[in-house]
Amino acid sequence: MALLNRPYVAGTMDRRLTAWTEAGLIDAATAARIRAFEAGQARPGLSHGLAVLGSFAMALGLVAIISANWDAIPVWLKLGTHLLLNLGLGAAAWIWAEQKGSLRLEAVLLLLSASTLALIGHIGQSFHLQGGPTGLLGGWLLLVTPFTLALARHGLHRGLWTLGLLLFLGSALSDHADRLAAHHLFGAALVLPMAVVLAARIPLARLDHGWADQAAALGRASALALPSLLLLTDGFSPHDLPDGTGQGLLVMAGAGILLLAAELAAGPTTGSADRRRRWPLALLLGLCPALAALPGLIALPGHGLAQAMLFCLLWITVAALSLHAQRPGLYRLAVTLVALRVFIVFLDAAAGLMTTGLGLILAGAVLILLGAAARRAMAWGRQRIRTGEG
Amino acid sequence: MRRALPALLLLLPTLILGGWAATLALTRDSRPFLDIALRGVDPRDLLRGHYLTARLDLPEIEGSDGGAADSGTAGAAACVCLDPDGADPLRPLPRRLPSCAAAVLARCPYPLRDPGQTFRLYLPEDKAPEIERLLRAGETRITTRVFFHGDGRVDFGPPAIAAP
């Protein structure tokens, strides 16, 4: 299997090492040691990925077969066969359970997980049960989460489980949206899973760092993405929002950002200087929800412009945080989003001009200026990340 | 002990599902049942794949606006008692019950909560077009076996084709 990856070592890695040697970054002896080290490393990446994808395709095929027309076969035989298949997969996973991260264990766990989902659907179909996707996904999560958390280590498996969790949460919220909104609990119902996912990374870190990192990334991404979407639309204007649901979204967006601010202020640090540097950023982030709600609450003129400024403020803070965390990708995303939002403001303001030649020239000029400014900001950020001054 | 925990985590889900399926099969067969005709049938609801969406074809309840499909007053599902009708065995007569209290439902052999509810029945793919054709031509009726829990809830058997 490792042979599949030899060309990578001999090709890309070799060219990079030659370039670094020629640039004087490393000496020839170091390059030789790196080559020897890399040649001795088994790289299961590609084969691992292909096998997991193959298993996933097999699992999907299994779901398709069970869902298809089997009416000629008695129900007990279909269900019995499916149960035996599941038990066989469980037994195989148990035999290989000590080999965490191994290809065969990951593949068989993925098959067991998919087959368990199909078995719940199969039972529902056989007995004409009237449950919906919430029950199906909730039951599946209840049954597979213990062994998935304890034994699965591959990113694809984590991703699929997370997708199931998100679909379950979305479906449950959709089922109960009216009742939650009537009791002013819609926002709490949105924030609670976000907070639980963010907090879960602490116990998960003791189990596996991959799961902990995924929980942290998911919690932060939802805490950032949802308020951003609301700020891009008219979500932060409570007057325009329909009853409890709109207020719930407002609560969720504000609480999401506050969660990030709290995490930043109270999270692990590298020392007291690091802690002191974080506080202004945490404060700025923490103020965003209150600032964002202001235009809607007191009906300020220029509400759209205030929203745009708050969107920019939020993402400028994220840019600063990403510099601090040495995350160039996130920094570039933040700069790009700010530039795009500024351009949208210009388009809104100059809507009448856009049908004229002058308007188009102006738009082009603004776009070029924004592009240049974004490029400079990115170069500045790259430099700071490189020198560790984030 | 270190080997026992993974075994538990990996095998228990399937055993639970097996137990669930066995319980469903055993309890359903011991419940009272009626074969009831279906109406409002959409043989190929594309959004739901091979599921047939239907309501029970019950005669109108006296004093209601929408027949048995009337689910009662807003916010509270009505409960009815189904009495087998010798004239049309596939359309039992619904009798409105004063409430859905357990004591009231216990006095009825076939109690049904929310008689107007829409439900789904799995339909084998190869049978769907033929059933659709027969229904449109008025040449047949679709029935299902309804198993009564006794507390107003019901389970359903597979859809079947009955002579008109």
Would you write up a description of this structure?
The complex is a heterodimer of chains A (390) and B (164). With 390 residues, chain A is an all-alpha fold. Chain A has 14 helices and no strands. In chain A, helix 1 runs antiparallel to helix 2, helix 7 runs antiparallel to helix 8 and helix 12 runs antiparallel to helix 13 (328-349). Chain B contains 3 helices and 9 strands, in the order αββββαββαβββ. The N and C termini of chain B lie far apart (63 Å). With 164 residues, chain B is α+β, with helices and mostly antiparallel strands. In chain B, strand 1 (33-42) and strand 2 form a beta hairpin. The A-B interface holds A 67-69, 71, 75-76, 79, 83, 86-87, 90-91, 93-94, 97, 112, 116, 119-120, 123, 125-130, 143-144, 146-147, 150-151 and B 3, 5-7, 9-11, 13-14, 16-18, 20-21, 24-25, 28, 49-50, 119-122, 124-127, 144, 155-158.
Strand and helix layout:
The complex is a heterodimer of chains A (390) and B (164).
Chain A: H1 6-22, H2 28-39, H3 45-67, H4 75-95, H5 103-126, H6 133-151, H7 155-182, H8 186-207, H9 209-232, H10 243-266, H11 272-297, H12 303-324, H13 328-349, H14 357-386
Helix pairs in contact in A: 1-2, 3-5, 4-5, 5-6, 6-7, 7-8, 7-10, 8-9, 8-10, 9-10, 10-11, 11-12, 12-13, 13-14
Chain B: H1 4-29, E1 33-42, E2 51-56, E3 79-83, E4 93-96, H2 102-106, E5 111-113, E6 119-122, H3 128-136, E7 141-148, E8 154-156, E9 160-162
Antiparallel strand pairs in B: 1-2, 1-7, 2-6, 3-4, 3-5, 7-8, 7-9
Q: Give the SSE order of chain A as H and E letters.
A: HHHHHHHHHHHHHH
User: Which sequence of SSEs, written as H and E, runs from N to C of chain B?
Assistant: HEEEEHEEHEEE
What is the overall pLDDT average of chain B?
81
How many strands, which pairing sense, and closed or not: the largest β-sheet of chain B?
Answer: 6 strands, antiparallel
Assembly status: heterodimer
Tell the overall outline of chain A. Answer: globular
Q: What number of structural domains do the residues of chain B give?
A: 2
Largest interface: A-B, 32 and 32 residues
Task: Determine Rg of chain B (CA atoms, Å).
Answer: 19 Å
- Helical percent range of chain B? 10-25%
Q: Could you estimate the helical fraction of the residues of chain A in percent?
A: over 70%
Question: Got a strand count of chain B?
Answer: 9
Unreliable segments of 5+ consecutive residues of chain B:
66-76
Q: Return the structural class of chain B.
A: alpha+beta
Content-based structural category of chain A: mainly alpha
Please give the alpha-carbon distance between the first and last residues of chain A. 41 Å
The chain-level mean pLDDT of chain A equals: 77
Please state the CA-atom Rg of chain A, rounded to the nearest Å.
Answer: 26 Å
Stretches of chain A where pLDDT falls below 50 for ≥5 residues? Answer: 1-9
